[in-house]
Amino acid sequence: MSDNDLSPTRDTPAIAADFVGVKVALSPASAVHGPLALVGVFQLLAAQADAIDQHPHRALVVALASAAGTMVATPLRQHVFFPDDVRRAASLVRGYFRIDLVDPGEVVPEGQFWVTVSLGEHLSNVVGFTGPPELAGVRAGLGA
After folding, report:
1. Domain of 82: which CATH number?
2. Model-wide pTM > 0.70
3. Using H for helix, E for strand and C for coil, what is the string for the chain?
4. Of 82, 59, 61, residue with least CA distance to 1
5. Which pLDDT score, from 0 to 100, does residue 68 have?
6. How many domains would you assign to the chain?
7. 3-62 pLDDT tens trace
8. Host domain of residue 21
9. β-strand 69-73 against 61-66: which pairing, if any?
10. What's the CA dihedral at 26, 29, 30, 33 to 10 degrees?
């Protein structure tokens, strides 16, 4: 994991100052070959964040669904975090994340996929992507 995985990117969704929850987007929005990353931001009340984990990133749960099935993972569970990986302001805790769905140079899998993230009681928006039909049989992974 690099420092860039915990910083906002040009594709990170914007949130209002008083937003509480999780919001995600794809970076880039569509591609035939990777990288294809899920980028996001969470902002929680400090008490919620502290109740989840000292480092809330570890509790992010990614669900990827398709007609072929569903994959669920906690891709940041085993990573090392530092106090400055989240930003505390007033009563809010904010963190950013980037999770590779398709590694650089790999082929985006065939079919339609929907991705969502949960963190504690919060569920993000759903984002989707469609892989080219001529690439049947290739599977997506949740890279860490």
Report:
1. 2.60.40
2. yes
3. CCHHHHCCCCCCCCCCCCCCEEEEEEECCCCCECCEEEEEEEEEEHHHHHHHCCCHHHHCEEEEEECCEEEEECCCCCCCCCHHHCEEECCEEEEEEEEEEECCCCECCCEEEEEEEEECCEECCCEEEEECHHHCCCCCCCCC
4. 82
5. 87
6. 1
7. 568 889 899 999 999 999 999 999 876 567 788 899 999 999 999 999 998 899 999 999
8. 3-135
9. antiparallel
10. -60
Residue with the two structure tokens 């994959």:
71
* Look-up of token digits 């669904």: 65
134 touches 108 (CB < 8 A)? no
